[in-house]
Amino acid sequence: RGAKSVKDMGNELLKKYHQQIALDRKKIEDEATQLIEVERRRLQDEFTAKAAKQNENVRTVRSEVRREMENNFIRLLELISKQYERKMELLDIHVPDTKTDALSHYKKKMRTYYAGGQPTKDEAKKLMELKELLELTFDEHLAVESDVREELYMFNLRKQILVGEITLNTYTKIDELRQRFNINSEQAGRAESLIFSRVKKFNIKGRILLVDAEAAHNEMMETGLSEKSYEVLPATNIQTAMEMLNNEFIDIIVSDVRFPEGQFDGFKFFSAVQEQFTLRRIPFILISSNQDTMLYRCAAQLGVDDILFKPLDVELLNSVIEGKMKRYRELAQV
Predict the structure, then answer these.
(1) What is the dihedral of CA 225, 227, 233, 237, to 10 degrees?
(2) What is the DSSP letter of 275?
(3) CB burial class (10 A; 0-12, 13-18, 19+) of residue 209?
(4) Per-residue pLDDT tens over the stretch 308-324
């Protein structure tokens, strides 16, 4: 019985030993699982961080590559643009780079297409394509069209008055011009002073705009030229002269070269006249008290009709004026 008791106790201890081993193994396995999970998470976080860093590096490299490609593309476009502009310059073709230049170019082209009064369908289509190319609005197109129609109307009106096709008794020709260029009553009204100032002066040889800051010289020349059957319209400054040109019919312009400081000189006055489509063909004579050969060169380069020097001889001036006006009328009939 005692031996059995010892055996039972041994079995019981062995059983407890195995239970303890199982518990210890379970504890070790649980701790190992926890450690493995912690390490797995650490490695996952590390991998995620490295992947994010790698992605950021990739994005940075891509951004730098894209920026470099864009810069290279822009430089290529600039080079092509410069080469294109250079070729256009060599071909004497101007590419407008401002709104003012664009409108001026559009107006110049429109004058060509509207010369006969109304453009053809093909010309109208080309104008619309040019409008889009120059990025002009339709309102800007209409404003330019109105100006061009009025300019061409005034130009042709001046021309027909000059060659004698329009007189006080030929208003039907004026109506024909109005219809051809689609001129409204307001635009036509601006031409009335021009018409009557010319056709009512049938007993004079021509109307001369005399521009000189010296009032005494103006009076002397006005007297001398009036005796030669000219009507002289004197102006002592260029601003007044420009206003008279836009409101009066002028056959010829005689202007001094020098004016008081702050005003245009005669050369700039000539350039301003040349910029106006309806005035550019009026003969222009410069006068100067300084007999400098440089003045001749400047006048010749600009295209001034003639240059005379003070003190003016009325007979010489009269001869020059008659010659220029004769040539002007001959050109008007072309």
Answers:
(1) 40
(2) T
(3) buried
(4) 888 888 888 888 988 88
